[in-house]
Amino acid sequence: MNCLVVKTGTVYSWGKGEHERPKFDDYKEYSTPFPMLEDKHIAYVSCGVSHIMCLDRNGRVYGWGEGKGGCLGLGDAKNRLSVCPISFFEDKRCIDVACGDRFTIVIAEVFQDSRPSSQASR
């Protein structure tokens, strides 16, 4: 799987990923870049072996591909053929994202809870 992001924030993808299996032992292959994500103003993209993660200009994280081992951060190991927002990070401002073989690392700002410590644990 391959990706690039252009100045407008559109993500283009091409290549072959094992998660794109429409039927047993049949692989889809895209040899020409096609727009995968156009309306999110993506600032950064990272590719793993079989998954892709993106970070938009507002610090939101999106991903798709093979979810094996939970590498998409969606709470399961399902494969995603289309782009999904990663809801765990909705209330956080993410600064960076990086994909490894079958894992993802996200760096996010941590906000202090403004409630007194006795109320924060409730």
List keywords for this structure.
122 residues, mainly beta, 4-stranded antiparallel beta sheet, 3-stranded antiparallel beta sheet, 1 helix, 9 strands, 3% helix, 42% strand
Describe this structure in words.
The N and C termini lie far apart (about 45 Å). It contains one helix and nine strands; from the N terminus they run βββββββββα. About 5% of the residues have low confidence. Helix content is about 5%, strand content about 40%. By secondary structure, the protein is mostly beta strands. The protein has one domain. The longest helix is centred in the C-terminal third of the chain and has 4 residues. It has a four-stranded antiparallel β-sheet with strand order 4-5-6-7, with no helix packed on it. It is globular and about 50 Å long.
Order of helices and strands: EEEEEEEEEH
Distance between the termini: 44 Å
**Total DSSP helices:** 1
The tally of beta strands, per DSSP, is 9
How would you characterize the largest beta sheet?
Answer: 4 strands, antiparallel
Overall geometry? globular
* Strand order, sheet with most strands: 4-5-6-7
The number of distinct structural domains comes to 1
Radius of gyration: 16 Å
Helical content class: under 10%
Briefly note the structural class of the backbone.
mainly beta
Q: Percent of residues in beta strands?
A: 35-45%
Overall mean pLDDT: 83
